[in-house]
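Entry 14. Structure prediction run on the chain below.
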Amino acid sequence: MLNTLWLGFFLTAAVAALVQWLVGGHGEIFAAMVQALFQMAKLSVEVMVLLFGTLTLWLGFLRIAERAGIVDALARWLAPLFRHLMPGVPSGHPALGLMTMNFAANALGLDNAATPIGLKAMRALQELNPEPGTATNAQILFLVLNASSLTLLPVTIFMYRLQQGAADPTLVFLPILLATSASTLVGLLSVAVVQRLPLWRPVVLAYLLPVALLLGAFMALLSSLSAAALASLSSLLGNLTLFALVVLFVAVGAWRKVPVYEAFIDGAREGFDVAKGLLPYLVAMLSAVGVFRASGALGYVLDGIRWCVEAGGIDARFVDALPTALVKPFSGSAARAMLIETMQSQGVDSFAALAAATVQGSTETTFYVLAVYFGAVGIQRARHAIGCALLAELAGVVAAIVACYAFFG
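Output returned:
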């Protein structure tokens, strides 16, 4: 699947470039595509520099948590649930606790913590993989849930809107919550259908229903706060949670007589080893995305969508927000650039900008996640992971547009 997808990017870009040259007379398109190749290679290295530091830091703290027994305790608590959702993972396996910590970090918008924890979980799942080059059912479910982008506190979106002069930076908070919940639900259900997971068994419902009720109550509480209070709480809760995790790991490690400094150094070395193996995968995926965008293929897709929407008599205002949606699965930095460009050209509180911000906050860089998580363990055959992850992505985009029409329409 990855081979076909990667080849498809280049072949589609080649066709689009030929059309621009032969029909439109834009001979400079080939120079733009070559430049995009080198720009994406440079971006890959810049991303790697950030990953080196982040992975080294957080895998150091995670090694302390492992030796202190925190990860094992989480695994034992979640064993009954994961026995049904991931029957291939033994009860009490460390991967269970690591996956839980990853989901919690993602929900709170702690990307810097979530990615290293997620990579650690993926490596733990790989230890159970009988075919190292092919993704297991457990790895696919874990990746799809990561790609579904369940985020309760989209602090970065508030920051972008504030930078562009929005009077109420948190205006998109509830639409993002609704859209990101929809993407996660669709991601879980799609994998459950393919893998025939028993979601309706009492044990599974006993875990999932309280989480859903707590999530609903949390949303209701946050919706009652003023914009200023919500922005303040978002920033405080995110940073407080991040630092509290560090203190918890170190304090419990010291209490359990773990040599915390030595454990940190041991984990940090592992983080360095993990990071250095990711560069080929990042260069491959980002270069394909860059050529696809520079060739004009993305523009053709948008024009086609706009024509179909208008031909059907449907309001086409949301089409101006689709550049963010279309590039988000491939590149977070490109999607961020598209979002900011939409805010600047359309107005920060225009419908297009609000829809783009909601899409940005409720979707994930699916192919980046795929390249990093599967690349870290050498998986080449993704099976149904891409299809389920993209379905969750699509659900997030559709839900974001519908929510924006309901709130701002």
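The chain has one domain: 35-408.
Filed with the rest of this week's runs.
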